């Protein structure tokens, strides 16, 4: 295929667009791949659409290879199935809702669990029908509060979503593994540098869940990885290694101290160390009790919940929320203190909470036999040497404390460091949530119904264009991997005389006959403009037909390395075809 | 490619779906190509999606061949461009409107004239940039009052829409011709029987316009064609041949007659013929004056309009509306008669209308020198021999009278007959409406701005699946043309012993290696079920591997003709590959 730049619907920009903060956004706009058409809505110009289609092709090939079958649902969906699963309300403002001319409620699909479940229920009935994996490559809609960074986080975007349907947990595990393998092959083929992190589930409910994050400074997702092992996880999914429980014997008695004006951990530690007690204290010796309130979806009433964390760490609300999902979490207000006079603000201890029936969950570091300084449930008083398992017994543990760089890696190897990434894929063992909602059963061999278990798997297809661009660019422009480049070769005619144009035409024609797609710069602009555009556009191989043609040579430049090679004009078609075929 | 029916997400239905009235809907559902997911919203199951993709590929190839460039816009669009062109309100209830979380107005794109115009304005500035043709294959949304017949008229559907941008009318004409040619090639390749009819413009405003209608009883569009020539037109676009004007000299004077109880044409004609006047009258000798009211978009006030048609014809509101576009048309009510006492209901004549400033348009048959019986603007009175051009002078002509079978063809050859079709394509010279709305100019060679002129061209891609099915089916099921079939060959293993399964596998493997795609019925159901499904699904070539295998033969059946041929098993791969390659 030959694409002539003289007629291509493409105008590159020399200036960065004002609203572009990240490199991929800046370069995809400057190089004429995308244009903003609405807040969070982008138009794909010819070269951008080709990159998108190339990615879609790789995704489809690998999905087909694991036996997933492509179907396609509408994007405009009736409300009822989403009401049945609760997502009509759970999605909140993120869901685009719409009424038709009769006033009936619709939504623009954010993901399609409901529709796929109903589709399988509609077609299949026997255990012999299963397992099945279905997918679609489709436009999705989410009314993001902050669409940003071009196609990195849009409100309308292309997603591959797939769903597996199995008779039992082993089947689900196998489908999940197949998807995991397919995702690895897809992202490898697309030339991406990525990590697979343990993840929490978001609003979808379920169990095992991993995210594929393309490593990128521009990423919105923070994750942690180990310095010494392959461990990586979303901050929400980091599991704190619990120290071993200690013996209770011989530990000092708990003592209440008058600690005036110590409402913060810092003032408390200073006071204690100034009081000349038997030992020195640090913030890590204190037990900070944070009060929140929670309610389950559909509930009206809030319930108080106490959270205990070591005093040297803050409560990370995202980790706390992930740990309490699907419950909603809110901070307590003055009215809550007023309604519960046993709560002594700044001096809350486990005692009053548990005596008054408030559930109390603690950080996993707070194990039996550990001794703490904490609130004595009395203004200006703290208790020292309050021992877990002796003086108080938590109702359970929760991952609510912040994760810090330098924390031990949960796998026991190395320490954690923070990094940023772009979520490009998510694989997720949904379990039976949706099958329960719609009573998706198969008739088993014993004629008894078997409830189906599902997996849900997504790839942000249009986002991948940005993720790849984030990882494949330099100061001059984009540097596409071969698998996604909008053309195999960018051929520049540098010179004004007919000979070079004719030479270019001839080479382009021969390459095209070999099945090599060529972006052919046949414009009558200056060589400088053409070279700058070639660097900006980022096709991996650039062929320059110019002055050298008189001597029988053309120049072949590798966009990534900048390496230039003079090639005999009669050999250039073979040479370039070889490069393209890899 | 091999598609195994043992694992394919496909369940055929023996019964017709209750809501399916037309053959394509019935068969596409029964054969498992589509499923209803919402009112006017359909899911594409694996085989249906393949047919859709095959059609898309043909469309893209022919669009690319005329130099059109593919891009893609969002479907969720901001209101402002559609307000600028008036379409935000003109579309009425057909437009899906939506508010985002901030309360901003959006719409789901019904067509994208606005966005394409703005895109070209954004990239191009010089006359050297033009002409350009751009297209997209995209999901469109229209809140149809009556979605019907499956994917024939949905509310969410796939459309190819393209737009041409030219510097002058000659350029537009050339772009229009190119599209016309591409559409002919597309519909020919898809095996469609269709007519190209002169059309009116709908809500888009502009001049030359043709529709491609697939001939089908199930079609919603009525058109007329000549018995003796290639003439075909939408009823709205039929131009009535005007008879020559006649000399006024020697015509009898107009005379008013008392005609009691003759409020209808029929009673009037009976009365006149019973009155023993000098000649007999027919309904065609009477002039029926119909009163309507109109207002232009944006206007509040209605204006009365008189329409005169020969009394033997009804006013066809669709033709009248098309003739008055973009004005809105409504019937007059009692209140209008009350407010205008000069209107004598049942006895309205041209005189009172014109004396009171009511615009009066007549059928083209009402030419100078024709004499009419019409209302005398006085209850129970008519005037006879009221002569056009002598006793009244209309303000102009209008195509408002019904078109009837047997009317003379406007091209002078033969008479008109009515037929029904499915609109599959529309090509349309938009002119400068959108360029004016957005001031799309090119800087000319003389540095003066040149207003761009546009064409708009659409193909109903998902509707084509239904249109093809309407034309290609029989009582047993679908009969796909090769170009769109979901597979090249349907191979049925008929028999239970391993030999036939192994024989089938071997043939399927060899065909696949030759690049022939095979739908392989490897299920363990009865041969009868398999044969019925093969007929229903409609792949053009069916290969049956059964008992004959022992004798070294398999059966090759042509789905369309029903012809069966025994082929030597060693020759079948060559034979079938030959059929597929055509």
From TrEMBL, chains A, B:
Keyword Ligase carried by entry: yes
Chain ranges of the Aminoacyl-transfer RNA synthetases class-II family profile domain: 35-481
Keyword Nucleotide-binding: yes
Domain of life: Bacteria
EC number, UniProt record: 6.1.1.15
Subcellular location: Cytoplasm
This protein's UniProt keywords: Aminoacyl-tRNA synthetase, ATP-binding, Cytoplasm, Ligase, Nucleotide-binding, Protein biosynthesis
GO molecular function per UniProt: aminoacyl-tRNA deacylase activity; ATP binding; proline-tRNA ligase activity
Pfam family, one: tRNA_edit
Alphabetized InterPro entries for the sequence: aa-tRNA-synt_IIb, aa-tRNA-synth_II, aa-tRNA-synth_II/BPL/LPL, Anticodon-bd, Anticodon-bd_dom_sf, Pro-tRNA-ligase_IIa, Pro-tRNA-synth_IIa_bac-type, Pro-tRNA-Synthase_IIa_type1
Catalyses which reaction(s): tRNA(Pro) + L-proline + ATP = L-prolyl-tRNA(Pro) + AMP + diphosphate
GO CC annotations, alphabetized: cytosol
Biological process, per Gene Ontology: prolyl-tRNA aminoacylation
HAMAP family membership: Pro_tRNA_synth_type1
Subunit-level organization: Homodimer.
Domain notes: Consists of three domains: the N-terminal catalytic domain, the editing domain and the C-terminal anticodon-binding domain.
Family: Belongs to the class-II aminoacyl-tRNA synthetase family. ProS type 1 subfamily.
Biological role: Catalyzes the attachment of proline to tRNA(Pro) in a two-step reaction: proline is first activated by ATP to form Pro-AMP and then transferred to the acceptor end of tRNA(Pro). As ProRS can inadvertently accommodate and process non-cognate amino acids such as alanine and cysteine, to avoid such errors it has two additional distinct editing activities against alanine. One activity is designated as 'pretransfer' editing and involves the tRNA(Pro)-independent hydrolysis of activated Ala-AMP.
Name of the featured protein: Proline--tRNA ligase
Organism encoding this protein: Prauserella isguenensis
Record gene name: proS
